[in-house]
Design goal:
Layout: H1 2-21, E1 35-40, H2 52-57, E2 66-74, E3 88-96, H3 100-120
Parallel strand pairs: 1-2
Antiparallel strand pairs: 2-3
Length: 122
């Protein structure tokens, strides 16, 4: 009987210490980016903008996650008699993370057209 009690205690100790040694892995939390907004009052600043940075920002997203690229142009009134006057302008492009290249190219194309309009007016 003493032998069974000793064996039971030894077995329970081995089991207890075995479970104490198991490591719990920390939960890795991945944050995702769903919106990116460029805000400027000068189109010339966009000529130096690193468009590849946008792709890197969204690379951890799920390919089916919805994302939004936005642009805000704020112009302080200087001459209201200009031929073409752009006050404040905002536009957004929305799509899936897997379409980031297409969305970025569309944003670049639209901004270049707007920049041409703005510079013609000066």
């Amino acid at each position: 009987m003493n032998k069974n009690i000793i064996l039971t205690i030894v077995f329970l100790n081995i089991t207890f210490f075995g479970f104490c040694q198991s490591k719990t892995r920390p939960e890795i939390k991945v944050s995702t980016v769903s919106d990116f907004k460029i805000e400027t009052d000068n189109f010339e600043e966009l000529s130096d903008f690193d468009w590849n940075m946008i792709k890197e920002m969204f690379e951890n997203n799920d390919p089916e996650e919805n994302i939004t690229l936005a642009f805000v142009y704020i112009k302080k009134p200087t001459d209201l008699n200009e031929a073409i006057y752009i006050d404040d302008l905002t536009f957004k492009i929305t799509g899936k993370s897997s379409e980031i290249d297409k969305l970025t190219k569309q944003m670049q194309k639209t901004l270049s057209k707007i920049a041409k309009i703005d510079f013609k007016a000066k």
